[in-house]
Specification:
single chain, 5-stranded parallel β-sheet, two-stranded antiparallel sheet, 7 helices, about 20% strand
Length: about 220
């Protein structure tokens, strides 16, 4: 009963992970389930000095710098924070500013140790962090739909022009081949990020039944 339930959501960039998290939030609000959602991307290490040296984030990528490497995440802190949340201890997580500066603000975002903790991002698959999750969910996506979503997000919310966005998409796809796709088969559930979310809502209902039984073992 004292155990907090951890769900890790991974997948390629622009696969629909954020949409899945929004669906989780809506479904859990309907069921009155206590939930906290956090992004593992906030555990990127601060690369503001490197970006300043090269002149921009895009030029840093052009130099061959491997941004998505596991070495560029603060995996030690992510493990500590998730372990504390799983034991019912509130934490304050860092915030990676998605504005091209590479700045990380430490202890910026308070997160409550709710009964269900959902963590999305590629870092959920890395190292011993992956072993913390009770359910590992992978969001798959058709490459054409991924490209459409990636370019739209880059131009509407990340202030990138199409040329730079396409260069970044080429990079993240290569990074996915090294770091994300090889771990896909380790997931407990694989869903299509572009499909109807009705089935996924049924998964949430199932998780609700599990956690409710944990809290009320006599039922």
């Amino acid at each position: 009963p004292e155990k907090h339930f951890l769900i890790g959501i991974s997948g390629e960039s622009a696969s629909g992970k954020t949409t899945i998290c929004n669906t989780i939030k809506l479904a859990t609000e309907r069921l009155n389930m206590p939930i906290e959602i956090l992004s593992a991307d906030n555990y990127f290490r601060d690369i503001s000095a490197l970006i300043s040296r090269y002149g921009s984030f895009d030029k840093l990528l052009e130099s061959g710098y491997d941004v998505d490497s596991p070495d560029n995440f603060n995996m030690e802190q992510l493990f500590i924070d998730l372990e504390q949340l799983s034991r019912g201890i509130d934490v304050r997580i860092p915030q990676y500013l998605v504005n091209g500066t590479g700045v990380v603000v430490p202890n910026a975002i308070p997160k409550k140790a709710q009964k269900i903790i959902v963590v999305e991002g590629m870092a959920t698959m890395y190292g011993k962090v992956a072993d913390l999750f009770d359910i590992k969910l992978y969001v798959d996506i058709d490459p054409e739909i991924q490209e459409k979503w990636f370019l739209y997000r880059a131009q509407t919310s990340r202030n990138q022009n199409e040329e730079n966005a396409r260069k970044q998409l080429a990079y993240v796809r290569e990074a996915s081949k090294k770091y994300i796709l090889p771990k896909k088969d380790n997931s407990d559930i694989i869903i299509n990020g572009a499909s109807s979310l009705e089935y996924f809502t049924q998964i949430i209902d199932y998780i609700y039944q599990i956690t409710n039984n944990f809290s009320n073992p006599e039922q």
